[in-house]
């Protein structure tokens, strides 16, 4: 069995990981699992604009990319599985699909898409969790 290697990206991961007692990703052999990423920005504190749904979706994808790279991967091209959680599925579904097409034009990951009543922070519209293969 491979040993587990935990990673946190600079900024949000380094600050909030210890605060909430979790890691941004874990590597198990050649598989990297990334914890749910929201559409926040981070400048020493968490910034989340509840009125900018498209911005949140785009930033959630960017935050996943940051965590993947911090774990030594190339980015979305290494992702094979996605779970997305949506506070308003009607508002965010197509934006999510558009990001898939832009960020993974050469492959289609497996995907579970879940509508939820509420996410971790007030105004949070989406959370994206992925698994990726590290070649």
Q: Can you count the beta strands?
A: 8
What helical percentage do the residues reach?
A: 25-40%
Largest sheet features:
6 strands, mixed
Helix and strand sequence: EHEEEEHEHEE
Strand content: 25-35%
Give the strand order of the largest sheet, numbering strands 1, 2, ... along the chain. 1-2-3-8-6-7
How far apart are the first and last residues' alpha carbons, in Å? Answer: 18 Å
The coarse silhouette is globular
Structural class: alpha+beta
Radius of gyration computed on alpha carbons: 14 Å
Number of DSSP helices? 3
Overall average pLDDT: 92
Low-confidence stretches: none
Structure description:
This protein has 135 residues and is of the alpha+beta class. It is 31% helix and 31% strand. The strands form 2 sheets. The chain has a 6-stranded mixed beta sheet with strand order 1-2-3-8-6-7, with helices on one face. The chain has a two-stranded antiparallel ribbon with strand order 4-5. Helix 2 (53-70) packs across helix 3 (89-103). The chain is globular, with a radius of gyration of 14 Å. The two termini are 18 Å apart. The mean pLDDT is 92.
In short:
The chain is built from three helices and eight strands; from the N terminus they run βαββββαβαββ.
Keywords:
alpha+beta, six-stranded mixed β-sheet, globular
Write the layout of secondary structure elements.
Elements: E1 4-7, H1 12-20, E2 25-28, E3 31-38, E4 41-42, E5 46-47, H2 53-70, E6 79-86, H3 89-103, E7 110-115, E8 126-133
Parallel strand pairs: 6-7
Antiparallel strand pairs: 1-2, 2-3, 3-8, 4-5, 6-8
Helix pairs in contact: 2-3
